[in-house]
Design goal:
With 541 residues, this protein is mainly β. Helix content is 13%, strand content 38%. The protein has 2 domains: 16-237 and 253-345, Metallo-dependent phosphatases (Purple Acid Phosphatase, chain A, domain 2, 4-Layer Sandwich); 350-539, 7 Propeller (Methylamine Dehydrogenase, Chain H), CATH 2.130.10. The chain is built from 8 helices and 35 strands. The strands form 7 sheets. Strands 1, 3, 4, 5, 6, 7, 16, 17, 18 and 19 form a 10-stranded mixed sheet that branches. Strands 2-9-10-12-13-15-14 form a 7-stranded mixed sheet, with helices on one face. The protein has a 4-stranded antiparallel sheet with strand order 21-20-35-34, with no helix packed on it. α6 (216-229) runs parallel beside α7 (249-261). It is elongated and about 75 Å long. It starts with 15 loop residues before the first strand and ends with a strand.
């Protein structure tokens, strides 16, 4: 257990996984000068409304620091460890807020449900967690009902009494799924937690205290509601497969849905090993942070990851990787010790392609903001000289004029992306939509469509056939310098992606060029030499 006033380590040597618009943070107040928060000073804070001063950089930029860790379990083989979090407490407690996933029950009440793995920690575990600096703990996982609703209710009550706020659990399902909003130095952060890992003993008829389960419609609505009330939404989710080093496709789909709904930071856990990350358009997803405190010490379970995230009133500002040795007595890795682990979660890297009439070639990519699918923009679609407002919300496209909605895409369309311009080279502004819709057999397929304004109404001017490789993102731009816009597409090719360039030939698009397959995302067209854009994508191994 650290002594009061113990200094936090210098974290400046650890890599940044995300920087909004590629801009580095201003020089932060040194973490070495930040004293560990004492239990006594924190106990007086209201668990219903937390206000923290926050911090700022040298330029006065307001920043709020959150440290998030993975699985925390103080029962079984950890129960006999004296001060198991002593080595990580100085840097955990130095943040404005510290969040983890508590994967055990801390309670005397409740009988163990049937099953081989039921995790209960001694009552002293609450003091250990408080002393380590935890402010919030997620209770939405497959072990917090190990001792039934009574055990979960007592766990939540004991945490609250100690000044730690539980997230993702409540007296009923509605309360469990309700967001927790914290005002930290004027920045409003919303926290949600969901469990997507079932337990064979789960029964729909169980009443009383429960954890928030993953129901897509309700969960995404809760995220959207939280986003309307906060500057940034942080989602903790228990998902995936144990000991799998790569996220499965379902995790990626769910992550994308949460980001589309408004999540800025998604923190995954349950696999007990570190999985990869994704970053795009103001959001960051860590598919699994692995363990922090657990009695597993075999192979990959010994490696964990903490995230040091910064927020301002515009949302997520930056994310830094803090690699840890996980186990019964976790500690921070040195940068040298973390080389192999950090290779699994590298910062995003830009790849560029420059094109001419002969094709495209790899080039050094300029620094660029990560973009991702379309959100909103303006273009004069009616030809009256006044631009219309176009936005994509929950898979639908909405066109407005003077604040009034004038067109909405059909409900059976799910629009993955769109781009504004003149895709069919007819001298009129239109929308090129990358959408999914069911065919005659009810199978949902990917299509490119052109929508424009003709004869006083918005119409489908061209409906492309279903494509073999689904369209993930699309852009329009004259990439080869012939003064005619090309369609640039980021397409799915099995487990990988490819960048493709297409040219309008009068009744459809023909393929001009396709990149080698890779793990690509966030297609951006950036200014290049001679006025032709450079096609830029981000990639992670």
């Amino acid at each position: 257990m650290p002594a009061p006033g113990a200094a936090a380590p210098d974290l400046s040597a650890y890599p940044w996984l995300y920087l909004r618009d590629g801009a580095p943070l201003p020089v932060l107040r040194s973490t070495a000068s930040l004293a560990v928060r004492s239990t006594a000073s924190l106990a007086v804070r209201s668990t219903a409304s937390l206000a923290v001063a926050g911090r700022s950089g040298a330029a006065g930029e307001p920043l709020v620091e959150l440290i998030a860790v993975g699985d925390v379990m103080l029962g079984r083989g950890v129960a006999g460890e004296p001060h198991p979090l002593a080595a990580v407490a100085p840097w955990l407690a130095s943040a404005d807020l510290a969040l983890g996933n508590l994967e055990c029950v801390v309670a005397e009440a409740g009988a163990a449900r049937p099953g081989p793995y039921r995790l209960r920690a001694p009552l002293s575990a609450v003091a250990t967690l408080r002393a380590a600096g935890f402010d919030l703990l997620g209770l939405a996982n497959n072990h917090t009902l190990d001792y039934g609703p009574q055990g979960l209710a007592e766990t939540a009550a004991r945490l609250q009494e100690a000044g730690i706020t539980p997230v993702g659990a409540g007296a009923d399902a509605a309360a469990a799924a309700r967001s927790l909003i914290r005002d930290v130095g004027g920045v409003r952060l919303a926290f949600l937690a969901f469990n997507a890992v079932s337990d064979p003993e789960d029964r729909p008829q169980d009443s009383g205290w429960t954890r928030a389960g993953w129901d897509p419609a309700h969960a995404l609505a809760a995220i959207a509601t939280a986003r309307a009330q906060a500057d940034a939404v942080i989602v903790s989710i228990h998902w995936g497969y144990e000991y799998d080093l790569r996220p499965d496709p379902a995790q990626r789909d769910v992550a994308q849905a949460m980001v589309d709904a408004g999540a800025a930071l998604v923190i995954g856990h349950h696999p007990h090993v570190v999985q990869g990350t994704d970053a795009s358009r103001g959001s960051f997803v860590a598919y699994s942070l692995g363990n922090l405190l657990f009695d597993q010490e075999q192979d990959e379970t010994r490696y964990g990851l903490a995230l040091r995230a910064f927020f301002d009133t515009h949302g997520l500002r930056a994310v830094q990787a803090l690699p840890v040795w996980a186990g019964p007595r976790p500690r921070l890795m040195t940068p040298g010790e973390a080389v192999s682990l950090l290779a699994r979660v590298p910062p995003p890297r830009s790849i560029g392609f420059a094109c001419d009439r002969a094709g495209c070639r790899p080039v050094e990519a300029p620094n660029s903001p990560e973009a991702g699918p379309f959100r909103s923009g303006e273009i004069d679609l009616t030809g009256d000289g006044v631009p219309e407002q176009v936005r994509r919300e929950e898979g639908q496209v909405v066109i407005s004029s003077a604040g009034a909605e004038t067109w909405r895409s059909p409900s059976e369309w799910q629009v993955a992306d769109l781009t504004l311009g003149d895709p069919n080279d007819d001298g009129r502004a239109e929308l090129l939509l990358a959408l999914y819709k069911p065919d005659a057999a009810g199978i949902v397929r990917s299509h490119p469509f052109i929508v424009g304004y003709r004869q006083g109404a918005y119409r489908v001017l061209w409906g492309g056939s279903a494509v073999t490789d689904p369209i993930r993102e699309a852009e329009l731009g004259d990439v080869d310098g012939d003064r005619v816009p090309e369609l640039v597409v980021l397409e799915e090719r099995g487990a990988d992606q490819a960048v493709t360039v297409w040219r309008w030939h009068g009744w459809g698009f023909s393929l001009v060029w396709r990149s080698p397959p890779g793990r690509y995302r966030d297609l951006v067209l950036l200014p290049g030499q001679a006025g032709s854009p450079i096609l830029t994508v981000f990639t992670n191994p």
